[in-house]
Amino acid sequence: MELQVALRARRSVRAYSRQPVDRDTLVGLLELAVLAPSSMNRQGWAFGLITDPARMASIEIMIKEQLLQQITPDSPMARYRETIESDEYSVLHGAPAAVVFFTRPGAGSTIDVHLAAMAFLLAAREQELGTCWIGFADGWLKSPAAQAELGYPDGYAPLGLIIVGHPQSWPESKPREPLELVFEL
Ligand SMILES: Cc1cc2nc3c(=O)[nH]c(=O)nc-3n(C[C@H](O)[C@H](O)[C@H](O)COP(=O)(O)O)c2cc1C
To answer: Which atom of ligand 1 is least distant from the CA of 11?
Structure first.
């Protein structure tokens, strides 16, 4: 798949088949992701993998509980409360696997990790795997409870969680707003 095609066809996928995604596939995608540029070539990224369906299910429950606790009536998230509370709503969209992106102790440029994450999304698309960054997981992910559950060492800072799986179908591309050029010289 050409890069331009992958860029146009990548979409956040929110419905997955039950087909698993194995560790080697995720590691292969991450090996491509770390070809991203990094500040002073410090490669300040590290990763965690979840491929066990039982752990995906239990983590999903923890994320949902934390998310609902965090939504106060005056929070900007308040309008999502009813949706999130519903048993039908899956924060992890039924994906079979997820990758957690971290900054490494002492080398942690969050920009490096974001660049690697974007490369990961495109590499996955090229292999017909769907992805979605789950910002709703952030509150839980950055909590001590998540460190205990995931079992990663001190000093690593989780930046985000991206679900991965085989899409039930590819969503239509979403139109973007017109380019905004704030200066031209
Ligand atoms: C930082 C970040 C957080 C996001 N959090 C969520 C989320 O919690 N749940 C979700 O379903 N989609 C989430 N998304 C996906 C966005 O909604 C999606 O990228 C956006 O609507 C554009 O659609 P596209 O990715 O299909 O082009 C997130 C995306 C980003 C970059």
So the answer is: 26
